[in-house]
Amino acid sequence: MNYFKTKYLLFFIVLVLFNCDKKKEQSSRYPDSSKILSNNDLLDTIQKQTVNYFWEGAEPNSGLARERLHMDDVYPTSPKNTVTTGGSGFGLMAILVGIERGYIPRVEALKRYLKIVNFLENADRFHGAWPHWINGETGKVVPFSKKDNGGDLVETAFLVQGLLTVSEYFKDGNKEELLLVSKIEKLWKEVEWDWYTKGEEVLYWHWSPEYGWEMNFPVGGYNECLIMYVLAAASPTHFISKSVYDKGWALNGNIISKDSLYGEPLVLNYFEHDDAPVGPLFWAHYSYLGLNPHGLQDQYADYWKLVQNQAKIHYKYAIDNPLKYKGYGDSLWGLTSSYSITGYAGHRPGYDLGVISPTAALASFPYAPTESMKMLVNLYKNHDSLIGKYGPFDAFSLQDHWFLPRYLAIDQGPIPVMIENYRTGLLWKLFMGNKDAQRGLKNLGFKTIN
Cα separation of 152 and 131, whole Å? Predict the structure, then answer.
């Protein structure tokens, strides 16, 4: 009996030690949310984690953001060296947050930025525009779809937004920092925005040397692409006229909406392929990482009202929860394009699959700080299995007991940037201080408070 007691006692001790090691290993990978004591701690934690997606998680040769990272199998299903143009633009801005918050030394960030810009100088471009995906080792285009193997003007706009913001940050710096600024200036001037009109009064999203304009996507009606038109009007070398904005983007005034949802005016029409009354929440984020919607107005909209109302509509929709999905409410809300149970999907009121995407609410901090904080606290206090090394995983469904330990660059990037805009306005101040951006806004008839 003593032998067996000793044997089982030893087995129990080994089991306890094993479990302690496992918990220690997990705690080194994932945050211990029980130790987070304040809202500021939470904001610091999530910013540090999400910035790290673009710092530690970057593709090593180019320094750019991987399209996606899977913590279950480390690398994405697409080639592991695939980098994303738009997501990298968000990442450039996220790294600035890292510098200001003390996560990343300025000198190390400068080295990374120079690596990135040197790579972009030699990567495939099509009339100055980069493709959606690039091979991070070779700089060659990786087709996003069969005919999408050339220039992507929208993704290029997101990248340029980030580049110009970085340029503003370093413009009064030392010799090496000024070299970075001059390199960014050259890349910016080489984007042929006017060429992407195809001689018409609208900007086209894609062009391919193999398929020409066959993608046939004129960008008009409200979506995530406002920044593209602003930058196109701001270009010192390849600018568009205001008529391209008025007729192409604003559809001769038909972009204005008189409709409301949950008592909130839509302000602009959300043109989509279905009857969903309002867009996914990334439409309120991507163009506004640098473009400050506070006091931003033109003949068509008050843009603060536009983006704030979109966040309010999503919040009120979650409380209403017309499809009775499990968990929806005042501390679990936000629909946007993200991973879904059956693949990538554009979640929004009117097209709701029961999938919550944390970036939707967390990147809305400037618009709905109380509501966004409720979501943040709920995630870190009650759902820490949905939090990984680089912050909240991309999407989950309590209704279907589903989540994937995976990330998308375009979803992680807006989180630290928009939280920083909420806390200090850092990225808004930088981008809106750019003289070209200011000229572009003026050329399109915008009023700003900057």
Answer: 5
Name the 3-class secondary structure at 101.
coil
| Euclidean distance between CA atoms 106 and 95, whole angstroms | 10
* Cα 212 to Cα 200: distance, rounded to the nearest angstrom: 15
Neighbour tally for 374: CB within 10 Å: 18
**What residues contact residue 131 under an 8 Å CB cut-off, 6+ apart?**
85, 124, 141, 142, 144, 148, 149, 150, 151, 152, 155
**Domains of the chain, each with CATH number or no CATH:** 55-443 (1.50.10.140)
Map residue 74 onto helix, strand or coil. Answer: strand
CA–CA distance, 277 with 335 (Å, rounded to integer): 13
- Residue holding tokens 């929440």? 281
Per the DSSP assignment, residues forming a β-bridge with 85 are none
Per-residue pLDDT at 273? 54
Mean pLDDT by 10 residues, the chain (450 residues): 38 37 36 57 97 97 93 58 97 98 98 98 98 97 96 98 98 98 98 98 98 97 96 98 98 96 96 77 98 98 98 98 98 96 91 97 98 98 96 97 94 98 98 98 92
SS3 50: helix
For residue 450, the model assigns a pLDDT of: 61
Q: What's the pLDDT at 12?
A: 37
For residue 121, give Cα distances in angstroms to 117, 124, 183.
6, 9, 8
CA dihedral 253, 195, 86, 77 (to 10 degrees): 120
Q: How far apart are CA 92 and CA 319, in angstroms?
A: 35
Taking the C-alpha atoms of residue 345 and residue 130, their distance in angstroms, rounded to an integer, is 24
* Nearest CA-CA partner of 85 in 33, 132, 24: 132
Residues 6+ apart with CB under 8 A from 124: 130, 131, 134, 139, 140, 141
Instruction: Record the tokens describing residue 297, joined without a space.
Output: 């107005």
d(CA 335, CA 315) in angstroms, rounded, equals 9
Closest CA to 194 of 184, 185, 186, 204: 204
Residues 166 and 289: their CA atoms lie apart, in Å, by: 13
Q: Distance (Å, rounded) from C-alpha 284 to C-alpha 303?
A: 9
Helix (H) or strand (E) holding 403: strand 402-403
Could you tell me where the DSSP H helices lie in 123-236? 153-170, 175-190, 226-234
Query: Is there a contact between 283 and 267 (Cβ–Cβ < 8 Å)?
Result: no
Q: What is the 3-state secondary structure (H, E, C) of 193-215?
A: CHHHHCCCCCCECEEECCCECCC
CB neighbour list of residue 175: distance below 8 Å, 6 or more residues apart: none
| The one-letter amino acid at 71 | M
